[in-house]
Structures are given as structure tokens and as C-alpha cells.
């Protein structure tokens, strides 16, 4: 970094929040996905004002700027792929206000998502989006990636809960979008444009979130199936019977085996699939609903259905699901985690395609996910040092995306496009669709300063490359 | 800017980087960088940057092993600033052996420093203490006796009044204030003796005295033995035992640590006891990882495993063979600060709480963040005084909220640190800090 530029940065941010040495810079070179890119500088801003000035300076000197929350991203969102400046947003975390009268939370972007859950619950309220990393991830990262977790089926995704934002634009202006009202049709809905924009259109510096009353109770069951296709039917039948579960999770046989191997939980090793169904709401209604879910599962061919009788049993069912991620990483050191999503009715077909891909490429491909909203998480467990296998992984990943899109689905339900899925954007959106997005980006960010190298494929790039 | 290593960097790994690679590279690659460890890490919380987090440190060890950063220039400081509390291991969903990675890095850094003869002043003192004092029980006992002389001669009052130590070093002055009041040397149980159980003998146990505990907190050791005999344990004090080696391992002196481990295994095997009991969370964690320490030594590994299987913290023993013969009602509220190495490494956190709750009259109140490190960290508080105090002062705010009159700990380092916390908060005359054993003994009217 040139000296005079650095001097100007020091005029904006105090020196103890500027990192230049190699160890510090390497500490901002990764996230939870794939790849490692060394930034020239990392800065920890503590106000919208500082960020605005930094972004203006970045425009002046054409420095790429990469906002970063807790770096739990699975798609490469915060990776500084073109070097430049990482903005570590974790110190912009001072505001977390619950507005009970308006059912709102007003938060700084660096606030940990689980802290919002906690504060809302203390006030008898509920913020439903709950990505599995919510104990670690920042709300700013959740908003920009639009990551939602298992409750999307009943409660919708993160974007349904964001009604107002304060944003630093790619040219450094501070703007406000939306506001504190649930209804707002004044002009374009920039709030929704920013949410899920993966940090390419702006840096969120404050957000207004909707809260809802906390459900009074919940009931959970675990059903096992000998045939995958039966579990798919159980899922669709439950929904068409008028029951709207708050969560519906699916695990395939590879996941079941991995979990049992890692931390024995008494799961049936010979089952081809397990589903977890949770309903929430008024206690008397719940009794009825869980009973219906149970009988629908049995009718669909479940070999066993276990309804949790108390909180302890409920926790033990969820423990099996939560163990999936750690358990599968025992198979190999590199995890390529996808989140291709299909219309719910296509889940059995998608599962079938994934099975073929596993066999064709001879990979450790395991599948779990939020089946209720069609958001599957096919994970390939591999070792990035094994070049030959990584080539097969690249091909398999391409085929997973092709399968999802051909079934009327999408590349990503909640992890984002980032670096890994950028080459496939045209496949889903078409040339013109992608061009409209590009035009928006160019209009907002004429110098391509904010998070360059993400979402849009590089020239001639049509496939993910995982080997160097 | 591409960060991919040039082939030159990889092929030119120097000897130390290669050693780090051999010791830890596979372990660092187990980390999936999910970040679940971040909220568990006390230094990430206090310093607020990625390089002060477990994920950051693991990545830096990996970078050093790949030759991308320098061991001395880039890796040493972030590693040195780790407390070693290992709360990240409990939080880790994939079981990355952080303790192993940390000690590998420390070992290589220490060797590199020795090679380049770059010892900061503090390191020189540390190195003399570790190589010439801690391994020798008699020398340490001498230090203890000297301290007792210092305290009973009233010399300490003169020195404190004149703020003599303050002028030399603030951390040392703060530590001087919190030294435990020592018992007369005559009360020591002799090593090599066996103390019979009171009543029927239910088990035969060998007692691990520890170096600092034996020298500076002898009373706690004596009371530990009395509690054990009161529940029907015959107590042997193996004569040829020595320091557990934890301080050495944490400072990268693995060779010495291994030697001490072997001497202890021999000494305790000879006792023929059913269990090996210790009363210091930090030492216990080391003793219980002797199998990891000696994993490459075929002739010792099986013996180390047996040693580990028999090792117990005093609280586990008292719960298993209790109840204790309580004699009096406790006054006031009690709170408990976990010893990280007892909780995170040995997995013992319920037993001390059960014991405290079982004291007649006692009101136990759980402190927010009781499972988080107090930043004593062995001798971390001496080496990184300011960083340590930042974490401690935040913890003392939580102590205050409990309104407890007694803070209980299960490790000497934590005990002194928490006492320092009350001293800094100005509450040391209202809030006492005691070892679990001292509290239980008092409730049993053991003096």
C-alpha cells in the first residue's frame, strides 16, 4: 500500500484499528468456504461515517473494498479475491434495541445474530431467521447473504424481516432505505435489493428488523424411512394436509452413518432417510398437529416414528441433526458445502440425481437440509490436497447445479453466489437476466470497488475451479 | 493479488518450519474455519481481532508450516497471547486438537528463539525458573519457606509501605499482595509416608502434591489429604514424584516435560494405589494428557495410559466416595469460578458445584461466564499483565453481580488471580477467595 494512501487512511481510522503486518493480514484472508487471498490492509471501522470516508478514499485510489462479518460464509462472500482492503465489521456492534411497541429490533451490523434472538425472547418476541452459525455470525453478514436457516418454510427468509436499512453506497454516500413501517411503497424497494446483494451494492451500517410474538410451544418428531422417495412423499403430504411445520429437516443414509460413527445417537443405520418435523404454536393445536404428522409419516411408509415427549427428548432429536456437520467433516478435511434448492415437489427427483452424481464421480457426497422449503445441502467431503479428486469434485459440483436448475430450482437457497457459484449464474438467469443485474451493479458502483470478483463470472468462466 | 504460495516458498521450508509442518500441519487442516470457536475465546473477546482467536491462530500455524509467514516475526506473538484455556476445544464441532497445535507451535518458537538467542528479559527469568527451580521439589520448598519467613518477619509490611516492589514492577507488586499466608513448615506431611483412612478403608489413593501447591499452598494439600482420609481413603504420598511438567509444556520445553512425566509415572506406579489424586486443575490436565505427551514413545505409552486412567481430581473422588462429614453451617453466598483445565480438558465441572451445594446452609449462586477463563493462564498474567487484567476486570463485574461473599476455585493460578481481582476491585476485605478444598474442610471443621 502506498504511503500517502496509508496516511489518508490514518486520518480516518485510529491506528490501533488498522492492520498491516503479515500475520494480521493473513488472518483476514479466509472464510468458512474455499480459498485464501491476502489483503493489503485490514481496517476495523466503528461508524458509518468512517466507512463512508474509507469507501470514498477507495474510489479515489481504486482500492477494492471487502466488508467482512464473522467470516462464516460458505460461498466466499468476504474473501478479498482482488487484494485491497478488508473492512472487519465486528466492532460496529454497539446497538441492539428492542422496540416492543412497534415489534422491531434496531441493530448495528456487527451484532451477533444469537444476541438478537436472546434479547427478543427476553421481551417475549421472536426473530425467526436462524442460520446454523447464528451463535457466531453477524447480522450484517446474514442480511447481505440473506441466509435464513431451517425456519424458512413457515416464517419466511431473512429478507421478509428487514424493513429498513442504513447503507454506505459503493461511492461512499450514506443512505436510508425503508423505515419503521411494515407497509412502505415509496419508490423502489432498495431494502430488498440490498438484502442478499452479498456486499456488492452497499455496506449495511444499521438495520431495522421485524419481530413477531414468540410461539408458546413446540412439538417434534423423528421419522425413519427405508426408501428415500417415501420420505419425500411424507413431506409433501404433511404440507398438503394443511399443517405448516416450523421446521422439516432431512438426512440421508450417508449422514446417518456419519453421525452414528461420530457420536452414537441410536439412529437406524439401515434407514435410507430420516426426517425431523417440528410444529409450533398454541399447545392444544399442537397436540392435534403432531398426531397428524405422525400418522401421515406412517401412511407414507415410515418404519419408525418417535414423537418427543419432553424437552430432553426434543433436544436429543435435534442433537442428531446438529451433529451432521461435525460428523461429516470426520470423513475428510475439505468440505464443499452447496445449497442448491428445488421446488418442494422435486425433492425426491433431486435426491435421485444426487445419488447418480455420487456414483458417477465416486465421491463422499452426503445430503441433508431443510426439506420443507426445498433447500438441500449436498456436501462433498474431500481433501483439497488430492488434485485428482478435486477435479472430479469440480465436475460433480457443476452437475449438481445443472440438476437443480433443470428441476426448476436455483443455485443457492441461502449461502450466496460468492466466488464458487459465479460461473453458473448465466445458466440460471440467462444472458439478459444476468445483464440486468450487471447494469445495476455498474450504475451503483462505477469503479467496481465493493466486493469485486463476486457473483458475476469472470470473462469466459463457465465452471468452478478448485485446484490451483 | 494472489496469495497462492510460489513453489519456492514451499520447497524452501527451513528446518523449524519443516518441524512445525511435521508436528501440526495435519491437525491445522482439520479446522474447517467455521468460526464456532470465536465466542468461546477470551482473548478474541478482549482484543477483538481475528489473529487473537483460535481460528486465527490455527490458520497462522498453518501459514507458518507452509512457510508463508515467519515463525519468530509473525507467529510468536499471536501464539504467546493465547491463554491456553482450551475453551475453543469444547466449542469446536469437529474436534480440532487445539492444545496439541498450540504446544507444537510453542515448542518450535522456543527452539527458534534459542537458536537466535533472542530472549526478552521476562523469558530469561522464566527459563531459569523452569529449568532450575520447578523440577526440584526441595528448591521450590525452599522458596516457599523463604516466603513464609518474609511474611512472618513483618518485612513485607515495610516493603509494601515503601512501595518498593511497585517501583521495580507493577505486576510483581500486585502478585506480592495476593500471596497466600503460608503455614509453618513443621505441619507438612512427609513425602514417602502413608496416612491411614479414618474408619473402614474404601480405597487406596496416591496424592500428587504439585510443585507450587506443595511450596506455596501447603495447607490446601494437607486439608486435601484430611478430606480424603475422612471419606475412607488411605493416602500415599509417592516420594519420588515431581512437578507435572505443565509449565514446561506450555512454554514449549517438551523434552523436560516428557522427562518429568516419566518420573511421575514411575513414582505413582510404585505406590500401587487405586487412584492418583490431584487438587490443581492445571496439573490434573497435564497428568491426564501424559498419554498424548508420550504417544511416540512405545515403551512408555501403555504405562502413561494406565496412569491417565487412574488420575482423578479431588472433587470427583469426594463425590464418588462421599458424603463428607459436614459439621457446621456455612454463612453467606458462594460462587464458583471454573478452572479452564479442569473444565475444558478434564471435563470436570459438575462435581465442584455439587459439593458446594451439599454444604449445609450454603447458598450457591452461579456466576455469568463462570466457565470463561480468568486470564491467570499459568504465568500469562505475569508475562502479559495488561491483557490479563482487562479480562480479569471484566470478570470481576460478573462476580459483583452475584453478591457472593466467597469465590471458590480449584486451581492455584485461578485462586491467586481471583484474589488479585478482588484486590483490584477494592473488595478483598468483603469477598474471600478460597480453594474448594479449604471451603469443604472448614465446613467439616478441619483446621
Automatic annotation (TrEMBL), chain B:
GO molecular function: 4 iron, 4 sulfur cluster binding; glycolate dehydrogenase activity; metal ion binding
Keywords: 4Fe-4S, Electron transport, Iron, Iron-sulfur, Metal-binding, Repeat, Transport
Cofactor note (record): Binds 2 [4Fe-4S] clusters.
Cofactor(s) annotated in UniProt: [4Fe-4S] cluster
Broad class of enzyme this protein falls into: oxidoreductase
EC assignment: 1.1.99.14
Keyword Iron-sulfur assigned: yes
UniProt xrefs under Pfam families: CCG (PF02754), Fer4_8 (PF13183)
Location of the 4Fe-4S ferredoxin-type domain: 21-52, 72-102
Catalytic activity: (R)-lactate + A = pyruvate + AH2; glycolate + A = glyoxylate + AH2
Keyword Iron: yes
Transmembrane annotation, as ranges: none
Biological role stated in the UniProt entry: Component of a complex that catalyzes the oxidation of glycolate to glyoxylate.
Protein name, entry field: Glycolate oxidase iron-sulfur subunit
Source organism phylogeny: Bacteria, Bacillati, Bacillota, Bacilli, Bacillales
Amino acid at each position: 500500500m502506498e504511503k500517502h494512501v496509508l496516511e489518508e487512511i490514518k486520518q480516518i481510522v485510529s491506528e490501533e484499528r488498522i492492520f498491516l503486518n503479515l500475520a494480521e493480514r493473513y488472518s483476514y484472508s479466509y472464510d468458512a468456504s474455499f480459498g485464501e487471498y491476502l489483503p493489503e490492509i485490514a481496517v476495523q471501522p466503528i461508524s458509518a461515517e468512517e466507512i463512508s470516508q474509507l469507501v470514498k478514499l477507495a474510489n479515489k485510489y481504486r482500492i477494492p473494498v471487502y466488508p467482512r462479518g464473522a467470516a462464516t460464509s460458505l460461498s466466499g462472500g468476504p474473501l478479498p479475491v482482488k487484494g485491497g482492503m478488508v473492512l472487519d465489521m465486528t466492532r460496529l456492534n454497539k446497538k441492539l434495541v428492542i422496540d416492543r411497541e412497534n415489534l422491531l429490533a434496531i441493530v448495528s451490523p456487527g451484532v451477533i445474530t444469537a444476541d438478537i434472538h436472546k434479547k427478543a425472547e427476553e421481551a417475549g418476541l421472536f426473530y425467526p431467521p436462524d442460520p446454523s452459525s447464528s451463535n457466531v455470525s453477524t447480522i450484517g453478514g446474514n442480511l447481505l447473504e440473506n441466509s435464513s436457516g431451517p425456519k424458512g418454510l413457515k416464517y419466511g427468509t431473512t429478507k421478509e424481516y428487514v424493513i429498513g436499512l442504513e447503507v454506505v453506497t459503493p461511492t461512499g454516500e450514506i443512505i436510508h432505505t425503508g423505515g419503521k413501517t411494515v407497509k412502505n411503497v415509496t419508490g423502489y424497494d432498495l431494502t430488498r435489493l440490498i438484502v442478499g446483494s452479498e456486499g456488492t451494492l452497499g455496506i449495511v451500517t444499521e438495520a431495522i428488523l421485524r419481530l413477531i410474538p414468540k410461539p408458546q410451544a413446540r412439538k417434534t418428531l423423528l421419522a425413519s424411512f427405508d426408501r428415500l422417495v417415501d420420505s419425500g412423499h411424507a413431506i409433501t403430504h404433511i404440507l398438503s394436509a394443511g399443517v405448516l411445520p416450523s421446521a422439516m429437516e432431512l438426512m440421508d443414509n450417508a449422514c446417518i452413518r456419519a453421525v452414528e460413527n461420530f457420536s452414537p445417537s441410536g439412529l437406524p443405520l439401515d434407514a435410507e432417510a430420516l426426517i425431523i418435523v417440528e410444529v409450533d404454536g398454541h399447545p392444544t393445536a399442537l397436540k392435534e398437529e403432531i398426531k397428524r404428522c405422525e400418522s401421515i409419516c406412517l401412511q407414507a411408509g415410515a418404519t419408525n416414528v418417535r414423537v418427543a415427549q419432553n424437552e430432553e427428548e426434543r433436544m436429543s432429536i435435534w442433537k442428531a441433526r446438529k451433529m451432521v456437520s461435525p460428523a461429516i467433516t470426520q470423513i475428510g478435511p475439505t468440505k464443499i458445502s452447496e445449497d442448491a434448492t428445488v421446488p418442494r415437489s422435486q425433492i425426491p427427483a433431486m435426491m435421485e440425481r444426487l445419488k447418480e452424481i455420487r456414483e458417477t464421480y465416486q465421491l463422499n457426497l452426503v445430503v441433508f437440509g431443510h426439506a420443507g422449503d426445498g433447500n438441500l445441502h449436498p456436501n462433498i467431503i474431500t481433501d483439497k490436497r488430492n488434485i485428482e479428486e478435486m477435479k472430479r469434485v469440480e465436475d460433480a459440483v457443476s452437475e449438481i447445479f445443472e440438476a437443480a436448475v433443470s428441476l426448476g430450482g436455483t443455485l443457492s437457497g441461502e449461502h450466496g453466489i460468492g466466488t464458487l457459484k459465479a460461473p453458473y449464474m448465466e445458466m440460471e438467469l440467462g444472458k439478459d437476466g444476468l445483464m440486468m443485474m450487471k447494469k445495476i451493479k455498474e450504475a451503483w458502483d462505477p469503479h467496481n470497488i465493493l466486493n469485486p470478483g463476486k457473483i458475476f463470472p469472470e470473462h469466459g468462466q463457465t465452471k468452478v475451479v478448485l485446484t490451483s | 493479488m494472489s496469495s497462492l504460495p510460489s513453489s519456492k516458498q514451499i520447497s524452501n521450508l527451513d528446518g523449524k518450519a519443516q518441524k512445525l509442518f511435521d508436528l501440526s500441519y495435519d491437525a491445522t487442516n482439520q479446522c474447517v474455519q467455521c468460526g464456532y470457536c470465536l465466542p468461546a475465546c477470551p482473548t478474541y473477546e478482549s482484543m477483538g481481532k481475528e489473529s487473537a482467536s483460535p481460528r486465527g491462530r490455527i490458520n497462522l500455524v498453518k501459514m507458518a508450516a507452509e512457510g508463508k509467514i515467519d515463525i519468530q516475526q509473525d507467529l510468536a506473538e499471536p501464539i504467546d497471547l493465547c491463554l491456553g484455556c482450551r475453551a475453543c476445544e469444547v466449542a469446536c464441532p469437529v474436534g480440532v486438537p487445539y492444545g496439541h497445535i498450540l504446544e507444537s507451535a510453542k515448542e518450535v518458537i522456543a527452539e527458534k528463539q534459542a537458536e537466535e538467542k533472542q530472549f526478552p528479559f521476562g523469558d530469561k527469568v522464566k527459563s531459569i525458573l523452569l529449568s532450575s527451580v520447578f523440577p526440584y521439589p526441595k528448591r521450590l520448598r525452599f522458596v516457599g519457606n523463604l516466603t513464609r519467613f518474609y511474611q512472618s518477619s513483618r518485612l513485607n509490611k515495610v516493603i509494601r509501605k515503601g512501595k518498593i516492589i511497585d517501583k521495580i514492577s507493577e505486576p510483581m507488586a500486585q502478585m506480592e499482595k495476593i500471596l497466600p499466608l503460608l503455614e509453618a513448615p513443621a505441619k507438612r506431611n512427609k513425602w514417602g509416608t502413608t496416612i491411614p483412612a479414618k474408619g473402614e478403608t474404601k480405597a487406596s489413593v496416591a496424592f500428587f502434591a504439585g510443585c507450587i501447591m506443595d511450596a506455596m499452598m501447603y495447607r490446601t494439600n494437607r486439608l486435601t489429604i484430611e478430606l480424603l482420609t475422612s471419606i475412607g481413603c488411605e493416602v500415599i504420598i509417592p516420594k519420588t514424584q515431581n512437578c507435572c511438567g505443565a509449565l514446561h509444556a506450555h512454554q514449549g520445553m517438551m523434552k523436560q516435560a516428557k522427562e518429568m512425566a516419566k518420573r511421575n509415572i514411575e513414582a505413582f506406579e510404585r505406590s500401587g494405589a487405586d487412584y492418583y489424586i490431584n487438587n490443581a486443575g492445571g496439573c490434573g490436565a497435564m497428568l491426564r494428557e501424559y498419554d498424548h505427551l508420550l504417544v511416540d514413545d512405545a515403551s512408555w505409552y501403555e504405562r502413561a495410559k494406565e496412569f491417565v486412567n487412574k488420575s482423578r481430581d479431588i472433587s470427583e473422588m469426594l463425590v464418588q466416595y462421599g458424603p463428607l462429614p459436614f459439621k457446621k453451617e456455612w454463612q453467606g453466598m458462594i460462587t464458583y469460578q471454573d478452572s479452564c483445565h479442569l473444565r475444558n480438558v478434564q471435563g470436570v465441572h459438575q462435581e465442584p458445584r455439587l459439593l458446594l451445594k451439599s454444604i449445609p446452609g450454603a447458598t450457591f449462586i452461579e456466576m455469568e461466564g463462570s466457565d470463561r477463563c480468568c486470564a491467570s493462564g499459568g504465568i500469562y498474567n505475569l508475562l502479559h499483565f495488561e491483557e490479563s487484567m482487562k479480562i480479569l476486570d471484566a470478570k470481576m463485574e460478573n462476580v459483583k453481580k452475584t453478591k457472593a461473599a466467597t469465590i471458590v476455585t480449584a486451581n492455584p493460578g485461578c485462586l491467586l488471580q481471583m484474589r488479585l481481582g478482588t484486590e483490584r476491585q477494592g473488595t478483598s476485605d468483603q469477598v474471600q477467595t478460597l480453594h474448594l478444598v479449604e471451603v469443604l474442610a472448614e465446613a467439616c471443621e478441619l483446621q
